[in-house]
Amino acid sequence: MKFTAFLIKYAEIGVKGRNRYLFEDALVHQIKFALKKCEGKFLIHKTQGRIYVDAEGEFDYEEAVEHLRHVFGISGICPVVYVEDEGFEKLCDTVVTYMADVYPDRNKTFKVHARRARKNYPKESMEINMDMGEVLLKAFPEMKVDVHNPDILLNIEIREKIYIYSEIIPGPGGMPVGTGGKAMLLLSGGIDSPVAGYMIAKRGVKIDAVYFHAPPYTSERAKQKVVDLARIVSRYAGPIYLHVINFTDIQLYIHEKCPHEELTIIMRRYMMRIAEHIAKETECLGLITGESIGQVASQTMHSLIATNEVCELPVYRPLIGFDKQEIVEVSEKIGTFETSIQPFEDCCTIFVAKHPVTKPNLNVIRRHEHNLDEKIEELVKTALETAEMMIVE
Ligand code: ATP
Ligand code: MG
């Protein structure tokens, strides 16, 4: 049986009134973006509060499903068969073929659920349910009807054409990207930050990203890895504007002027400041990091106070209560893990102290930052001016 379309199901909680249009329009937009990379031509349309993806001509079914499974806001993807209305008997024949093809295992219960969107169809919904149920029972004596909890809910929708569907492939859930504003992700080459970006994008937030690159201490390959990670996240989040900041001079200057055990904290404070600067310029409503309490010295509660205090915008840390293993599981699920574990240093060891502070004292940190007064403003300005921006999709 050849599927010719998909009915897109979405959770409708919170999408009443005007929000509903915003939600649906954003969803249609994201579906278009996702299918652009897919072989075949697709027409996406909203009809009576439903979204359909019609394939125009040949298309790769598996590939299309795979792409749709990346679109936030979709709770389920139903592959649909369209047939012309050539009378009820012909329809029953088609439905029998459909059931035989889609359910080779006949040991199942079913229920026919007809909907008449076109009211001039000669049979009423209830009649269709009964009559078609009977035909199916005759064709498949092993099957049984269960009206309360069927294994197969066979939907028959009478429109200009007749739509047949029963399978629901789970979607990723969440909200369509674009319905929730925009945030700036601090994206490193590690396991955590791509997962953090994915999680916030899942709530409908568009993602921009910033990566702090420190050549020659971090290699071109390390930067390429970040671009690759952004590309994987963009399969869910849509195109990502990735800002690459040359951080070398700032890092070297901090290294020269500040105590080594505070290097990471002070470095992280400058990352946050610069990220926030770009975020504000690009209308982002918050920052996102992959931090999780206690994972490393710079992510203890004390250290987080130090990195948090330099920003005005909210900092979203969706992994804050996750164990590493839980983060790894999500990264495997979303497909970033293999790239994240490629062995390109994302931070040169000269910048990592043997015994970094785990309980930084804010006053001490602030005082040591004053060691940077002479040049830091100029260095930050240069870093911002020489930032490279690329659109990753
Ligand atoms: P990740 O696995 O995300 O790299 P991590 O465990 O290595 O995280 P840190 O290096 O302490 O942790 O970084 C904490 C967070 O700071 C990262 O999740 C990321 O959001 C941000 N970050 C760290 N390094 C960079 C960088 N070079 N460029 C951009 N953001 C960074
Ligand atoms: Mg890291």
Describe the structure.
The chain is an alpha/beta fold and about 400 residues long. It is about 40% helix and about 20% strand. It has helices at about 15-35, 60-70, 90-100, 125-140, 190-200, 220-235, 250-255, 265-280, 300-310, 325-335, 335-340, 360-370, 375-385, and strands spanning about 5-10, 40-45, 50-55, 75-85, 110-115, 145, 150-160, 160-165, 170, 180-185, 205-215, 240-245, 285-290, 315, 390. Strands 1, 2, 3, 4, 5, 6, 7, 8 and 9 form a 9-stranded mixed β-sheet that branches. Strands 14-13-10-11-12-15 form a 6-stranded mixed β-sheet, with helices on both faces. Helix 9 (about 300-310) links the parallel strand 13 (about 285-290) and strand 14 (about 315). Helix 5 (about 190-200) crosses helix 10 and helix 7 (about 250-255) runs antiparallel to helix 8 (about 265-280). It starts with a strand and ends with a strand. The model has no long low-confidence stretch (mean pLDDT about 95). Bound molecules: adenosine-5'-triphosphate and magnesium ion.
